Amino acid sequence: MLSPSKNCIELIKYFEGCKLEAYRDIGGIPTVGVGTILYASGIPVKMGDKLTMAEAEKELFFDLVNIVKDIENFSLKNSVCFSQSQLDATVSILYNCGSGLLGPRKSLGIALRSRDAVRVSDAFLVYCKLRRAGKLVISNGLLRRRKSESHLYLTGVIKTNWS
To answer: Considering the domain boundaries, does residue 26 fall inside one?
Structure first.
């Protein structure tokens, strides 16, 4: 069974941060804890919600278990194998963007199916834009995160300081 490493969890926490009172993320979505937008109970986060640190950790790990299940299903269906660092990078991007990125028409899913590490690494960089006033614009924060995930996927090394 696949399992994200401590490095993966630290990378996610580095970019997500942890706020115990609900806030709106850069996309305007109510978020709490370590990037939680939907509780394990299926209820969406709403402004005014508060968590303890233990509850935030519990929600994070619930989400990680589900992401790993999605990756395992993808891996089995497509005969794709992941090294630990490749798994960690993939978990991180899916935690941020959703498992829909594994779809047959998504850049990441297509690249993963190709089994070409450089192509996969490049595909991470596609997902660094936000919609602002009806236009897609590059988010510097998302670009730094995608560079970190791409670098981890390709090299096995975590790097978070990008200029």
So the answer is: yes
User: In b/e form, how buried is each residue of 3-37, taking b as 16+ CB within 10 angstroms?
Assistant: ebeebbbebbeebbeebeebeeeeeeebbbbbbbb
Count: domains in the chain: 1
| Residue 37's CATH number | 1.10.530.40
What stretches of 13-124 adopt beta strand conformation (E)?
19-24, 30-33
CA–CA distance, 97 with 128 (Å, rounded to integer)? 10
In a domain? residue 11: yes
Q: What is the pTM of this model?
A: 0.94
Per-residue pLDDT of the chain (163 residues; tens, 9 = 90+): 689 999 999 999 999 999 999 999 988 899 999 999 999 999 999 999 999 999 999 999 999 999 999 999 999 999 999 999 999 999 999 999 999 999 999 999 999 999 999 999 999 999 999 888 889 899 999 999 999 999 999 999 999 998 7
Distance of CA 38 to the CA centre of its chain: 14
